[in-house]
Design goal:
CATH architecture of the largest domain in chain B: Orthogonal Bundle
CATH topology of the largest domain in chain B: MetI-like fold
Oligomer: heterodimer
Number of strands of chain A: 0
Distance between the termini of chain B: 48 Å
Strand content of chain A: under 5%
Structural class of chain A: mainly alpha
Order of helices and strands of chain A: HHHHHHHHHHHHHH
Number of domains of chain A: 1
Distance between the termini of chain A: 45 Å
Strand content of chain B: under 5%
Number of strands of chain B: 0
Largest sheet of chain A: none
Structural class of chain B: mainly alpha
Number of helices of chain A: 14
Number of helices of chain B: 15
Helix content of chain B: over 70%
Radius of gyration of chain A: 25 Å
Largest interface: A-B, 100 and 89 residues
Order of helices and strands of chain B: HHHHHHHHHHHHHHH
Helix content of chain A: 55-70%
CATH architecture of chain A: Orthogonal Bundle
Radius of gyration of chain B: 25 Å
Shape of chain B: globular
CATH class of the largest domain in chain B: Mainly Alpha
Largest sheet of chain B: none
Shape of chain A: globular
């Protein structure tokens, strides 16, 4: 090929600095454009336009924090935030507990380990839309789980989360956990496999019980794995959208709305761009709040060690 | 039960863990089996429902196997199910998804592998900064970038088209794939690269003749990651395409959650299974590589 790029020890380095390695720079252009134009540019654009009164089309008539004020005075947004809080809290705790417990079970040198692992992980290959629709059908009050248990003779059995505004979020949680715990289990299992066999031997010599060893020794050792898992779960929770659309459509009423859905409804359905921009900026803020302590722990710790 | 097991364990048949049926183990296996049922239940219910006729669904319960198996719901879901005024079934969504998937995979993996190669072997001033921005970008909620991308796609005339969506998938797949390839290429001994440089090989020559052949396993991992990711996408499909180019997931949601007409649960479940089939096949066919793919994506955050 015609790439006669300069040898490393070229004397006339300074004037041609920009062209040194020029093929690598050219080849990285898609990455540079994505990083600068789409990620930085796009985000900055949205944040900037969240201070305007744009409705159908983006306009530059500045209104300060008006959109944010309206946002926090909208019931639908408050409901969305509350739902995300409940879903997020439960999902974080339960995914970690279930994921770790399952991984610990699989790590006990059991038979059929790979079969169990395949079963726990396969929902992760499915989309949230498929997940939502499958659970919508199972939780259907007339034909699903509720009617089956009633058919067994327990006439007063009630399990109808999807049509009850107070419990609909737990209906989503059942489906979300079904889809997502497999991934966390896999990460935890990889973490457990990385722990030295001698630790277990030492614990046995000292007469520490299995569960106590997990709680006192293994879990503290797996701190980085837990942090990675936590970041993954958290970034998944904020994106929660497809599952809600498929399983409940935000209903009954507004009782299962989430912020990501709020943004999209206002941007693309209600023709109220400013509100959508303000809401998505709030989502960005929440990610920044989660990300900064993590980055500090992850990269701040590395420098010290 | 307990007697039987002690009898059989007297004669060793193949490798067997010690004390196979101690109380702790029964508890362990019991837990695993119960949890497995929770995971398998939806798949079972979907399959069973999709093979029943509507009268049977109205009468029976969701868990019972079909009394007479019918494949009509599958045919209907594939070729006749309605979204709005179109009644040509999921086959259109399937076709769209395939036409979105293939160029997206080729483009995104080509770009990401070159990025990874440049980042690990041809570092230039600022390359690490761009890479850091790219990785941070993976954590930014998509919602903050949705509208600017609408404007960009409109400017280049690709809004609503399949190629527009291909570009979007390429952009949003870039952080994770670049990370994957960068980590892989960094693990290849540097002497190999230096020797090729001494022999006078350039950027593309080294990429195509040395790096690419060595990186084939990681390409497979990247393909698995992208097939499941792009096939399962709903958000980008719903925003950047129009009804004629909707991917399968969007069309599925429109079919099942449409408010018009009588709900045909068996057709809905057949449609749901059809949409889930591609990633499921990938998952079961790829086995360990799938795990490796998600672990590579996840663990090195």
């Amino acid at each position: 090929m015609t790439v006669a790029s300069d040898p490393p020890s070229h004397t006339a380095k300074r004037p041609r600095k920009l062209f040194k390695n020029w093929m690598a720079k050219l080849a990285s252009l898609p990455m540079i454009l994505t990083a600068l134009v789409v990620f930085v540019g796009g985000t900055a654009w949205t944040v900037t336009y969240s201070f305007t009164s744009s409705r159908m089309l983006p306009k530059t008539n500045w209104v300060g924090f008006d959109q944010y004020e309206r946002l926090w005075n909208t019931d639908r947004w408050i409901i969305s935030i509350k739902n995300l809080g409940i879903y997020g809290g439960c999902s974080m705790v339960l995914t970690l507990v279930l994921g770790f417990s399952l991984a610990a079970c699989l790590d006990r040198k059991i038979r059929f380990e790979s079969a169990f692992r395949s079963i726990f992980l396969y929902p992760f290959a499915l989309s949230f839309v498929v997940t939502g629709l499958a659970w919508q059908w199972i939780l259907n009050p007339d034909f699903g789980l509720q009617s089956v248990v009633r058919g067994w003779g327990w006439e007063s059995f009630t399990f109808n989360p999807l049509n009850d505004p107070n419990t609909v979020i737990y209906g989503l949680l059942i489906a979300g956990l079904w889809q997502g715990t497999g991934l966390i289990m896999c990460i935890m299992l990889a973490g457990l496999r990385g722990i030295d066999e001698d630790i277990w031997k030492a614990a046995r010599v000292d007469g520490i019980g299995t569960i106590k060893t997990y709680v006192m020794v293994i879990i503290p050792m797996m701190r980085p794995v837990f942090i990675t898992a936590l970041v993954l779960i958290a970034s998944g929770i904020i994106k929660l959208y497809d599952l809600v659309v498929a399983q409940t459509g935000g209903g009954p009423g507004l009782s299962s709305e989430v912020p990501a859905k709020y943004v999209i409804e206002y941007m693309f359905r209600a023709q109220n761009l400013g509100q959508g921009f303000a809401a998505s900026t709030m989502m960005l803020c929440s990610v920044v709040i989660i990300l900064i302590p993590w980055a500090y722990l992850e990269f701040g710790g590395k420098k010290r060690g | 039960m307990a007697d039987m097991t002690t009898n059989t364990s007297a004669e060793p048949r193949g490798p067997k863990p010690k004390k196979a049926f101690s109380r702790g183990n029964i508890f362990l296996y019991g837990t695993l089996i119960v949890v497995s049922m929770y995971y398998l239940l939806p798949l079972y219910v979907m399959i069973v429902t999709s093979l029943k006729g509507m009268p049977e669904i109205r009468m029976g319960n969701v868990f019972s196997p079909p009394m007479e198996i019918t494949f009509e719901p599958w045919v209907k879901a594939w070729a006749e199910a309605c979204t709005g005024i179109n009644c040509d079934g999921l086959s259109r969504g399937f076709g769209n998804s395939v036409r979105i998937l293939i160029p997206s995979i080729v483009l995104s993996i080509a770009i990401a592998s070159i990025n990874g190669y440049a980042l690990s072997n041809w570092k230039f001033k600022g390359s690490e900064t761009f890479f850091t921005i790219l990785i941070i970008g993976a954590f930014i909620p998509y919602q903050t970038m949705l509208y600017p991308i609408v404007i960009m796609l409109r400017e280049i005339g690709l809004m609503g088209s399949i190629w527009g969506l291909v570009l979007v998938h390429t952009v949003f797949g870039m952080p994770i794939l670049t990370l994957l390839f960068r980590n892989y290429f960094s693990s290849i001994p540097e002497e190999l690269f230096k020797a090729a440089r001494v022999d006078g090989a350039g950027f593309w020559q080294i990429y195509f003749q040395i790096m690419l052949p060595m990186a084939l396993p990681i390409f497979v991992v990247a393909i698995i990651l992208q097939v499941t990711g792009i096939w399962n996408d709903f958000l980008f499909g719903v925003i950047y395409t129009k009804p004629a180019t909707y991917p399968m997931t969007v069309q599925l949601n429109n079919i099942v959650n449409s408010v018009q007409g009588i709900k045909e649960y068996n057709v809905n479940m057949a449609a749901t299974l059809l949409t889930g089939l591609v990633p499921l096949i990938i998952y079961f066919a790829s086995g360990k590589l799938f795990v490796r793919g998600i672990a590579a994506g996840a663990v090195k955050g």
